[in-house]
Design a protein that fits this description.
Layout (H helix, E strand, L loop, with lengths): L1 H26 L1 E9 L7 E10 L5 E7 L3 E12 L2 E6 L3 E3 L4 E4 L5 E7 L8 E9 L4 E8 L3
Parallel strand pairs: 1-10
Antiparallel strand pairs: 1-2, 2-7, 2-8, 3-6, 3-9, 4-5, 4-8, 9-10
The structure holds copper (II) ion.
Length: 147
């Protein structure tokens, strides 16, 4: 009986510890101003934007993004090739301690490829972001027309 109780207490302490650790890490990453551009008619892709603020002491890396309404999501950067603006996939995006990484038009962005249904302004897309050094975050991104 004594053993049983200490086992239960032990597990309880560990889960509490894990919970506190997760909450500490979660609060070190601020995500704001998120939105997805309404896809142009017949376009098989569009882009997602947001601000990622690292308030913690360690670098945080965005490593993967998923959305059930698209075949695939990629992390993209925009580069100048001569005077032509091009975009290309990157493995991950790093947010250094104290820095804010802004995903915005003509810069880094989420590339949403292959919509599985019609996506219109006013919709909300569920996007999950995966990080190194921070727990995954499930977000609701509003779809907006490009101004
Ligand atoms: Cu892109």
């Amino acid at each position: 009986m004594k053993l049983e109780i200490s086992r239960i207490l032990g597990i309880g302490t560990i889960s509490l510890f894990v919970l506190i650790t997760l909450q500490c890490k979660e609060s070190s990453l601020g995500i704001s101003d998120m939105w997805v551009r309404e896809p142009l008619k017949g376009m098989g892709m569009t882009a997602g934007y947001m601000k990622l603020s690292n308030q913690g002491p360690e670098s945080i890396e965005l490593t993967k993004a998923e959305c059930p309404d698209f075949e695939k999501l990629e992390l993209h950067e925009t580069i100048m090739d001569g005077d032509v603006m091009k975009m290309r996939p990157v493995e991950s995006l790093t947010i250094k301690p104290g820095e804010t990484l802004e995903l915005k038009p003509h810069a880094h962005h989420l590339m949403l490829i292959g919509p599985k249904k019609e996506i219109k302004a006013g919709d909300s897309l569920e996007i999950t972001l995966y990080f190194r050094n921070a727990p995954a975050r499930k977000l609701a991104l509003p779809v907006k027309a490009m101004e």
